Amino acid sequence: MNRHDVVVVGAGMAGLTATAALAAAGRDVLCLEARERVGGRLLSTAALDLGATWFWDGERRVAELVARLGIATFEQHLAGDTLVQDATGIRRLHGNLLDAPARRFTPGADALAQALAAELPTDVLRPATPVTAIHPGATGGLDIRTPDSVLHAEHVVLAVPPALALARIDFGATELPAELTRLARTTPVWMGAVAKVVARYPTAFWRETGLAGAAFSRTGPLQELHDMSGPGGRPAALFGFAPARAVGPGFEQAVIAQLTQLYGAAAAEPETLQVQDWSSERWTSPPAAHRLADHSLFGHPLYQRPALDGRLHWASTETADQYAGHIEGALAAGERAAHAVLSPHTDEANSCSR
């Protein structure tokens, strides 16, 4: 059996953060990622983000990380008016009423994950390796099963959404406390029931007419829209969010029709139209993710306590007690899990035992 001090499940920003901290502390750590790529919900194409997009003032972990990694950032475009679309038509409201000052990643958000993964020691990261089961070991620690192997670790860091973990990983019928199981199964997955649509254009033509690119819609299919153009407006793009259940036959045509209604004839022929339906991502969302709607469960106190005799640690952005759903929350959750592994006696009194 392959033995390690720690196995981290998931190579999104939380998992990579925890893995990097544990490796730096000299622990024998292995990071297992179901996908063939790192980043999780950080996914970019030609510097346009199909997942996480922004970070904001006060999110010091992201700011410090991009500075250390040397990743260029720029300010989100804010100037211009807002559009509101409802059953009565389209109204133009003065100023940008939707966007707040934020920063973007010049090469795309997933550059953050790729740069962090590149710093890990050789053979620490194992892609295309989904975890199928986690059970207490016969002599202590935890056994971790994948389709091709059984590993053993003293600690496991779960850096995937809790509801996804409960849907995809067998923990045994009675190993996890019932209250924790109920919590994990009902905690929403950030972006899990959302489709993100990015329309790329030759120029940011909406700016020329004094529009910010920001829009609300009560008729859809996109419910809110933003300017996603790069520095100086290049590449030029708009993006919007739609309920994942709206995606289906005719969806792209409906999106283009809506963009044309909002922004005029120039919006009718995007160079590219990309639809990222996060609900269909097997390694992001559990079945029926749209039914999970109680966002007050994010950062729940039970997620701050290790389970299974202090050996199982929660580390996705949904479990962060601050900035949950943000990249900052993922970094904070990864740091917390790594600290709990490295300082187990600190958390022993608060551990949630099986």
TrEMBL record:
Keyword Oxidoreductase in record: yes
SUPFAM superfamilies from the UniProt entry: FAD-linked reductases, C-terminal domain, FAD/NAD(P)-binding domain
Keywords, ordered alphabetically: Oxidoreductase
Keyword set includes Oxidoreductase: yes
Co-factor(s): FAD
UniProt-listed InterPro entries: Amino_oxidase, FAD/NAD-bd_sf, Flavin_amine_oxidase, Flavin_MAO
Similarity remark: Belongs to the flavin monoamine oxidase family.
Protein name: FAD-dependent oxidoreductase
Species of provenance: Streptomyces lanatus
